[in-house]
Amino acid sequence: MAKLLICDDESGLRAVLKRYAIFEGHEVTEAADGMEAVEICKNKSFDIIIMDIMMPELDGFSAVKKIRETADTPVLMLSARGEEYDKVLGFEIGVDDYVVKPFSSKEIMMRISAILRRTQKSSEVNNSDIKHTIFRKEGLEADLTAYKVSIDGIPVNMAPKEYDLLFFFIRNKNIALPRDKILSEVWGFDYFGDDRTLDTHIKLLRKSLGPYAKFIITLRGLGYRFEG
After folding, report:
1. How far apart are CA 186 and CA 166, in angstroms?
2. I need a labelling partner for 94 at 20 to 30 A (CA). Which of 20, 71, 88, 159 fits?
3. Domain range holding 150?
4. What pTM, to 2 d.p., does this model score?
5. Of 127, 157, 172, which residue constitutes the final position of a domain?
């Protein structure tokens, strides 16, 4: 069972998602706007937050930024718009997934399950006694254990999913990686719907890597390869 916070100004949508989540065995708390979500998170912790973008009082982006000041709770962002700008902004502030309305409740539950499995797996890895792993090539250095990346000696701050994507590439360097393989391993499930999510993250990652974006090779019609 997981503790979910569903934040959306549409009461009907909250009710539907809540019904499905409870059916899946989760505990659900509701918030009607971003301001209410922020206040709730001050006194209660959650395993995942489902956050709409366009809301009165405080929009979803601003709410996530405020919540992230004190908690690193996974976030599934909901939006009535599918513009790349919105997705890039959401991923840059560290949301875990992004779904465009309209969507099916079944899809939302699948994405929630995938995020929960991924965060649980990450926690198990972080808490285990594992070997410290550092990758270096030219001016790129990545500490896979401490989640640190530097470019020519200068630390780089990236969105959580950028780290996951880069480290997956590094662990599978010099291997041709199909798009569905990357989505399955990095996002934790057989991705369906708008697979531009991967393209958006590749664009963000290349921007973060600067001159070393050259290590990410696009394989037209297949996926990518990281030259390690």
Report:
1. 10
2. 20
3. 134-226
4. 0.67
5. 127
d(CA 220, CA 107): 29
CB 39 within 8 A of CB 64: no
Alpha helix (H) residue ranges in 74-221:
84-92, 105-127, 160-171, 179-187, 196-209
Amino acid (1-letter code) at residue 87: K
How many angstroms separate the Cα of 132 from the Cα of each of 13, 53, 89, 161, 171?
45, 38, 32, 20, 13
* Cα gap 198→128, rounded to integer Å: 29
| Per-residue pLDDT tens digits for 14-72 | 999 999 999 999 999 999 999 999 999 999 999 999 999 989 889 999 999 999 888 88
Number of domains making up the chain: 2
Which residue reads 């009461």 in tokens?
11
Same domain, 15 and 116: yes
